[in-house]
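Q: Here's a chain of 812 amino acids. Please give me its 3D structure as tokens.
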Amino acid sequence: MRHAFDAVLDRFAAADPGTLRLRQAIRTAVSVVLAIAVLALLGLPITTIMLGTIVAMMSAMSVNDKTVRGRAGTFLLLPVSAGVSITAGALLEPWPLVGDGVFLVIIFVAVYLRRYAPRGFAVGMVAFMTFFFSLFIRATVTQLPTLLLAIVVALGCSALSHFVLVPRRPRLSLRRIVVAFRARLGQLVDAAAHLVEDPDDRRHEQVRKRVTRLHECALMIETELVELVEPAQFDQWQQDVVDIELTGERLALAARRLVAGAELTPELRAGLVAELHELRLLAGRDPRPALVYEDDMSISRLSEIGRQLDAIDNPPHVTRLRRAIRELAVSITTARAELESDMLAAVTQEQPGRHRRPDEAASAPSSTPPEARSGLRLTTRQAIQAVIGAGLAILGGELVSTQRWYWAVITAFLVFANTTSRGDILIRGFRRTVGTLLGILAGMVAATLVSGQSTLILILIIGCVSLGVYVVQVSYGLMTFFMTMMLALLYSLIGTFTPEVLVLRLEETIIGALGGGIAAVLVLPTKTRAIIKEDVAAVLQALRRFIQDAVGLLRDADSVDLIDQSREIDKKLAELRKAAEPMTHAISPYRNQRSELRHVLAILASAAYYARTLAANAEPALLTADPRLPRTSGRIAENLSRLIGVVGGDDGMPERKVVAGDALSTHVRPRHLAEGGVEPEDAVGRRIMAGFDHLDELVVALARPLGLGDDTETEPAEEVDTVTSRLLGQVRDGSGAPVVDAALTLVDGKGRQVGKSAPADDGRYRIEVPESGTYLLIASGPGRHPSADLVTVGAGPLTRDIVLDEERDAWR
């Protein structure tokens, strides 16, 4: 029972790192309950209480300044914006056409203010929602004093919730994020154990998702730490977080490659699963000092299982997985005392930006939305689009209902929130429509079941508000579902609920979504492809800077923070994924480009991983004496410059080809001959060289999908001790998706195996060939027809992609 309860807590902690979304939902619910209670005690009418509820809810959701002073300043501005809006709505009630015009002005100002986020977003959102609600309750001048009182009371209740009842506690949030990090690490190890025990496609995908979630949580820890601790302490703990994250990723990669290789004996498979289960207990354990002895026991049990496995013949892939298990166990135990036991003593309550030095403040990433490279700012462009979309929504909404047309306007307004392109806006409109439809169905059922029970209805309304706020960062459609359900209950509370009203709400929502979509597509459109190209260029530029600075650190001991730079690559990649979502969504009309874009994202994700690996292992002046590093890094940087030029960067029109060359690591020892042990003194250097080689290959692999075609030059080889050829490529299925569970074997003319490989997460493989010649390349995978091709490998790298069809598709 205790283990089941702990498993539930782990899942909850992993789903909401730091319980940030839960605290936001609680803060909003407390604000709403306080506002309702105080306004009810004052004897105000139900419509006035409804206005106060909406103001309390929106202020609790939208005030997100990082500092206490910033949040206090925003709260002081909210009475002004809400007061102006409600006054305008009440004064213009007799002149609806003028009121419509003022509503469009408020929409323009509200969207325009988002450039000053987060304060501008909060001020604009509260102003819009207050005017919108004045239409909903048909506010008049005689009601104005009580409405203004309701706004002040509601904002006071929200401020009380923010600063006193449910305040933001950085120390507590950080501790909970660390708990979530442990939970996600444990889930990753657990998923790897299940994959090794019984491999299938679903478990492959589960491991991949667990890696992504672990990476997200690591970034959250660093985001909190950067605001709380001194620079020296931050650098130490950041290194610990990165070490654990990378060893976790290596464990996942080793597990996936293991199951793609040869069959394991039952005894060997059972031993590996036992090691992983013990590692799972170690990874997810509470680090309190009283439980330290349990860590020692876990290490002892891992050692005992290891001795049993040592007595069995271990293939190379098994050796790699066991090495990853040991590395992760060591990373966990060595980092635990620093990262978890000592953290709370050093963390201060709130001292923002202490990690940033004064000269870095100007270059720190901004929280405001990205702007266009030229022409109108994004916020100005969207403000114009929102006004036109809202105007179309007013016209269409009044054709359907002269009483409820404002539901179309709120949809047209909200589809422009937190969007950057027309595709993003269309997807948001679609999600709002679907969420509204499902919310109407659920709301009808709920309102019918609890009709006449005011207390129960009020509880359900507060519950819907809390759930909507809790999921808003995860699913916009789900948030719309709960808010629509809340609306049905609200109509039931004031005695105006009918199914026809909710159906009308759906019709108005569809009209608003269409109005916003038309404005986004036809009026000053921001093309999704253009945004994607800009974000791809930003990722490549960050990667180029990282390569150049890494060489400076490794050769000349330059003072650079490579981990920070690798995290910048991660952030740029996250922005790219968000921008690409409209083109990878299930309803996207660009289905023919979906596979290619996912291919690019997979390559860039692999590049970001190897950048993190380099950053974690690089040491000042480690490779000072290696003359090949500048040549390799220069080639990578030049290739990146050419790719940046192709996707629209600042480097002008490049040559229409990239350059491939010899690998650094192959000058030391071919990979397929180095599956066993590695000399300890060379381990770090080999890992760094392998990282550069992977980045080199990935950059070359970007040429075709980014428009450079297949024309690749080969850099003249250097005179080195051992010249090794390379066989490169990607394994894909019939639809172009990468295949990661394949096994590749290279056989010479005498039938001897000379090399083997397993694809990475993006399907790419590499086989080091000891000498030039003709070989047989054999590829196979579970449930797929094998392939066998003759390849002639020369002195330079040879690219050969492989397609493995599923058995059921092989006849096509």
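Q: Can you summarize the key feature?
A: The chain has a mean pLDDT of 77.
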